[in-house]
Amino acid sequence: MEQKIALVTGAGRGIGAAIARELGRKGFLVGIHYNSSSATAEKLKEEIGNAFLIQADISTIEGCDKIYNEIKARPEPLEVLVNNAGAVKDNPLFQASVEEFEMMVDLNMKATWYLTKRLMRLMIRNRSGRIVNISSIIGSQGNPTQSVYGMTKAAIDNFTKVAAMEMADYGILVNSVAPGFIETDMTKDLSEEHKKVILDRIPLRRIGRPEEIAEVVGFLSTSGTYITGTVIHVNGGMYGG
């Protein structure tokens, strides 16, 4: 295939790293964005081979602009943007702080909105592109102690639908993938009791793997030519949308 860029934010580990590997297998030149996971990002770059690194704090406008400028300067066209980077801080509503709120809004919501706003211009030039936003089951179903996280992820799904409408005339498809409970750093420290409560709510009776999210992102990045403005739930039957 003609060499095209697939940029994955928060690709240094977890779901982001699995997505980067999958898009590398699909033949893309993979842009691996990371903020602080330099060692794992470098290892991932070596593993994929056809990849490059971008370090930036995308909770800031300056960090997002840095990504835009680096992608714009490259000779290869940007074909895929995966807005994967995110943060979660669990706290009951009455204990949640303004600082926690601002941190999650900046990284989960503002970065997705602003990066899409900037990078879509590069896709419009080519009248081609795929944007995949990683949201969460929590944005649709809700979960105690995750009022802010759920609010930001619900906003991403709504943003996806609006962006899909606005970009359709330019040949750009925009979709969300909403993972359920997946084996990542966010879930590995759960107690066995908590895991049992979760598993009892999942018809497939297991926690998902990052690769199972990556498979769906890979499909949306290369196929699914009549799919846009959609939230695809990947959660073992826990929530059907």
UniProtKB/TrEMBL annotation:
As one GO molecular function, the record gives: oxidoreductase activity
Which lineage? Bacteria, Pseudomonadati, Spirochaetota, Spirochaetia, Leptospirales
Q: Give yes or no: UniProt keyword Manganese.
A: no
GO biological process terms, semicolon-separated: monocarboxylic acid metabolic process
Q: List the InterPro entries hit by this protein, alphabetically.
A: NAD(P)-bd_dom_sf, Sc_DH/Rdtase_CS, SDR, SDR_fam
Organism of this sequence: Leptonema illini
Keywords per UniProt: Oxidoreductase
Name of the protein this chain belongs to = 3-oxoacyl-ACP reductase FabG
Q: Which family does it belong to?
A: Belongs to the short-chain dehydrogenases/reductases (SDR) family.
Pfam families for the chain: adh_short_C2
